[in-house]
Design brief:
Radius of gyration: 17 Å
Bound molecules: zinc ion
Strand content: 5-15%
Strand order of the largest sheet: 1-3-2
Largest sheet: 3 strands, antiparallel
Number of helices: 8
Number of domains: 2
Helix content: 25-40%
Shape: globular
Length: about 250
């Protein structure tokens, strides 16, 4: 069964149109590093996004209905791409697995839709495949058994698959602060395809806003811990059971 928030992406929390730090997902689209993006946002932010899309010459289509998670306001789901056809492809792929309060029975068709959505968002095939493995197992079911938040399970699997040092540019865990060069769960913290993408996006960010890019790099390269509750915490005082990610190399 799919959890209600089962997704390979971690949507940024869009609280303001002001971009500080820069919106790297948008920058990746502008630079042609990714073919499309998905954005959830409060209805009051829609006119601003529409203007931004128009200025950039991109296309945008909306999901048929808003999405709502417990304790949160309903959010609109927008699909933005360089062409209308690609925006529609994103919308139509996700329509088949749209987040729902009721668990969706997992079928081959759902897995295929998730794979199509991941590819259309530009995520590496290896990372999409790792996500599909977690979907089949249950996104909140740990490989060793027992339950944990989706993010914890994804990070635990990626750490277990990592063979070299975890790369700070693949640190996706500061997304609530919008400090990231990766918007998907990597299959491992030395995933070559993700590292190439995140490195290119860092360079692009650095060309435009060098000071911001360097500050983001420094933040991403600090070790951190992820608690069993799915919260990011200080690596030096990690509670029992937490995963420690030794991000020190970029
Ligand atoms: Zn990968």
């Amino acid at each position: 069964m799919l959890g209600e928030e089962a997704a390979i992406y971690e949507p940024p929390v869009l609280t303001s149109r002001a971009m500080n730090p820069p919106d790297t997902e948008w920058l990746a689209l502008e630079a042609g590093l990714k073919p499309g993006l998905r954005q959830t946002l409060g209805a009051q932010h829609l006119p601003g996004l529409e203007r931004r899309v128009a200025r950039a010459g991109f296309a945008m289509v909306m999901a048929a209905r808003p999405v709502q998670f417990p304790g949160r306001e309903p959010e609109e789901v927008a699909y933005v791409a360089r062409t209308r056809a690609h925006a529609e492809l994103l919308r139509d792929a996700e329509a088949r697995v749209f987040p729902s309060p009721d668990p969706i029975p997992l079928t081959d068709a759902h897995l295929a839709a998730h794979a199509e959505l991941g590819a259309a968002l530009g995520f590496p095939r290896c990372c999409v495949d790792a996500f599909l493995t977690r979907l089949r197992r249950g996104v909140t079911t740990r490989a060793r058994g027992g339950d944990a938040p989706e993010v914890f399970v994804a990070v635990e699997d990626a750490l277990a698959a990592t063979q070299a040092k975890p790369l700070g540019r693949l640190n996706h865990l500061l997304f609530e602060r919008r400090v990231r060069f990766l918007s998907h769960y990597p299959c491992r913290y030395d995933c070559a395809e993700s590292a190439t993408y995140a490195g290119a996006l860092f360079e692009e960010t650095r060309r435009r806003v060098p000071a911001d890019a360097d500050a983001m790099r420094a933040m991403l390269c600090a070790p951190l811990a992820l608690t069993l509750e799915g919260r990011v915490s200080d690596a030096a005082n990690a509670p029992p059971g937490a995963l420690v990610l030794d991000f020190s190399e970029f």
